[in-house]
Design brief:
There is one protein chain. Helix 10 runs antiparallel to helix 12 and helix 12 packs antiparallel against helix 13. 36% of the residues lie in helices and 19% in strands. The radius of gyration is 23 Å and the shape is globular. It is of the alpha+beta class and 450 residues long. It folds into two domains: 265 residues, no CATH class; 75 residues, no CATH class.
Length: 450
């Protein structure tokens, strides 16, 4: 199966609401299926499909500049255009290529059940999303192209000795959203003008599965990773085991003549030096202190249980050059603010909450900020600051009560639970305030509580 020529994208089937039907990238970009909407049983897998479609389109059809990008977004390309654009790349995206299959490295490794590629599978004590072993016993080639992509880009590495994505273990992926899938894809495609200004121009552009993974124990400079190579980066040595037989996919429910029950994986430790400037994530910079000395240290934003989603939303939007307290907005957002000036900001934001290699939760949702959002960042900071002040006020009172009543250990545990409940129950209120502004008397209410 080839991701550029075959039908693999799962979309909503109006005639069979329980199972998706599959269309091709060509169908979407050429406007053959204008009502196409990605459809799978899990929001994280749907998000992975969108991300993969964006990257495929970016690699084969980057427009020259902002004007060309707006033209692409406004109307479908012709089938002849599409066929011409994909010709140099067809072999890159063949899932069953005899030597260099998409996202895979041919090797002699340990065979593992395919369910391992679904985040939250029941390994050890981790039963976040599944309830029994073998729930996903076999999958079709469509799903077999989606789950390795998700693993390579959004999920922590398998374990020690396996590398994670160029953005770290569980990065937040930030994309623009539009209900029209074709237009949604194009709004996340960078122009060649932007690429030349922000990415290494002398690095290799060939995907890892074409050149091979870095040599075991070697170090790779991020500046040597070209734009296409970085977008398509596969950090791990994995290979799907494809069986030629009829079956029905346990993930999407579609019938298929080729099934995947297992894959092979092999440890291949190596080092990436420096942060590759991935366009689909926002970056936080702070002052690092440790044995190696002090200095600025940058990481892609991720989710965790101690930072509320509305605080992360602010971090995603900020743009601030400061080696001790800096922020860099995802490049797709920066381009959007320049190309579609004055427009509202609909974002598709997704990520996993993890504890080392274990997945503890996930967030994948669409959030829209009204027009003028980029001129209201100071206001956003004040809203988030007020919410955090309120949290501190409530927790200080809770700590005093619980420590007096329950004692030290139980009191601290109850206070932590109180913080989690505060973030959960104020989320919609704070997001509404970010979209529409806070209530005019909010400061007075805080003063009364204090």
């Amino acid at each position: 199966m080839n991701l550029l020529t075959d039908r693999w994208v799962p979309i909503k089937d109006k005639e069979d609401g329980d199972r998706p039907r599959q269309v091709g990238l060509k169908d979407i970009l050429c406007g053959r299926d204008p009502d196409a909407a990605i459809y799978l049983w899990r929001d994280d897998l749907e998000f992975a499909v969108l991300h993969l479609l964006v990257v495929l389109t970016q690699v084969i059809a980057a427009p020259a500049d902002a004007g060309a990008l707006k033209e692409r977004e406004a109307s479908p390309m012709t089938e002849a255009e599409y066929d011409g654009l994909i010709e140099p790349y067809i072999e890159w995206f063949d899932l069953s290529h005899p030597e260099k299959p998409f996202l895979q490295i041919r090797h002699e490794g340990k065979e593992t059940a395919i369910q391992k590629l679904f985040p939250g599978l029941p390994d050890g004590n981790n039963h976040m999303f599944f309830h029994r072993p073998g729930e996903i016993a076999e999958i079709c080639l469509s799903c077999a192209s989606i789950v390795p992509w998700n693993q390579a880009n959004n999920v922590p590495s398998f374990s020690g000795g396996f590398k994670g994505s160029l953005r770290g273990g569980s990065p937040i992926t930030v994309l623009l959203y539009h209900p029209d899938l074709r237009r949604c894809i194009w709004r996340n495609v960078l122009s060649e003008e932007v690429i030349e200004a922000h990415f290494p121009q002398n690095g290799s552009e060939l995907p890892v599965w074409v050149t091979g993974l870095p040599v075991r124990g070697s170090a790779v400079e991020s500046a040597d990773i070209g734009f296409a190579r970085g977008l398509l980066w596969q950090p791990a040595c994995v290979e799907l085991i494809v069986e030629e037989r009829e079956g029905r996919c346990d993930s999407c429910g579609c019938a298929s003549s080729r099934m995947v029950r297992e894959f092979k994986k092999q440890r291949r430790p190596y080092e990436i030096r420096g942060l590759w400037p991935h366009p689909h994530g926002s970056v936080r910079t702070f002052q690092k202190k440790g044995k190696e000395g002090k200095g600025p240290f940058s990481v892609f934003l991720s989710l965790n249980n101690t930072i509320p989603p509305w605080r992360r939303l602010l971090d995603i939007l900020l743009e601030k050059e400061d080696p001790a307290d800096g922020y860099r907005r995802a490049l797709v957002l920066t381009q959007y603010s320049q190309v579609w000036k004055g427009a509202s900001l609909p974002m598709a934001i997704g990520g996993y909450i993890s504890d080392q290699a274990a997945i503890k939760g996930r967030r994948h949702e669409v959030i829209t900020l009204s027009a003028g959002w980029d001129e209201r960042l100071d206001e956003f900071q004040k809203i988030v600051g007020l919410a955090l002040d309120l949290k501190d006020i409530l927790l200080n009172k809770m700590k005093y009560f619980f420590l007096r009543v329950l004692g030290s250990d139980a009191g601290k545990k109850a206070a932590r639970k109180g913080a989690e409940l505060f973030f959960e129950r104020t989320e919609r209120l704070v997001l509404t305030a970010l979209q529409n502004g806070p209530p005019p008397d909010l400061k007075e209410r805080l003063d009364l509580i204090a």
